[in-house]
Amino acid sequence: MTAAGPAAAGAVASQQQPSRQQAMHMLLDGIAADMAAYATLQHLLEQQFEAAVRHQRAALEQLAEAVSALVEAMEARRVQRVACAVQLLGPAPSMAQVFALLKPEPRARLQQQWQELEQRVLECKRLGKRNSDLLVEQYTIMQRVLHGEDQIYEPA
User: Fold this and answer.
1) With bands split at pLDDT 50, 70 and 90, how would you rate the model's confidence at 5?
2) pTM score of the predicted model
3) How far apart are CA 68 and CA 62, in angstroms?
4) How many angstroms separate the Cα of 47 from the Cα of each of 62, 63, 105, 126?
5) Element (H or E) spanning 20, and its range?
6) CB atoms within 10 A of CB 125
7) CA-to-CA distance for 100 and 70, rounded, in angstroms?
8) 156/7: higher pLDDT
9) CA 39 to chain CA mean position, Å
10) CB under 8 Å to 63, separation ≥6 — which residues?
11) Were both Cys, which of 3, 77, 111, 131 would link to 30 (CB 3.0–4.6 Å)?
12) d(CA 124, CA 44)
């Protein structure tokens, strides 16, 4: 073993996994944080649509950066949530299994919150697709204006 070996091993040992209770709290806190983040994302996507309609390039660039940073943070929480669920339940955990670990009242609250989160995710996906479709259409129109039609007549 090299001189760095024992030090590295000690550093790994000091980075213990959270307890089961801490893992559950981290998981629940991550869901709550994502609820707020998806509300923010929805607002940003609405702003992005308006900026695209108005052809506001600078605003689109700023919004793209804000969306990207928000999505990165949400992805980090998703990864952490999966790791916490794996710690609590073992490989291939499901949220239904996580719910089952809780007492009835907190379970009902978490299930409701999870359903709301899923709805926010779906709405943000819908808004993201709408924005993407608009931007692609605008790009296509600009290409036609700048470069003309590739083919005026369709073959019979």
Assistant:
1) very low
2) 0.80
3) 10
4) 11, 8, 37, 14
5) helix 20-53
6) 11
7) 30
8) 156
9) 12
10) 44, 47, 48, 51
11) 77
12) 10
Q: Answer yes or no: is pLDDT of 142 > 50.
A: yes
The pLDDT tens digits of the residues spanning 42-96 come to: 999 999 999 999 999 999 999 999 999 999 999 999 999 999 999 999 999 999 9
- In the Cβ-directed half-sphere of 125, how many Cα atoms lie within 13 Å? 6
Residues in the chain: 156
Query: Which DSSP symbol is given to 18?
Result: P
Task: Look at the alpha carbons of 17, 18, 23, 29 in this order and tell me if their dihedral is positive or negative.
Answer: negative
What's the half-sphere exposure (Cβ side, CA atoms, 13 Å) at 119? Answer: 6
| Residue 1, both tokens | 């073993």
DSSP assigned state of 152: S
Cβ–Cβ < 8 Å for 44, 71: no
DSSP alpha helices (H): ranges in 54-103?
A: 57-89, 95-100
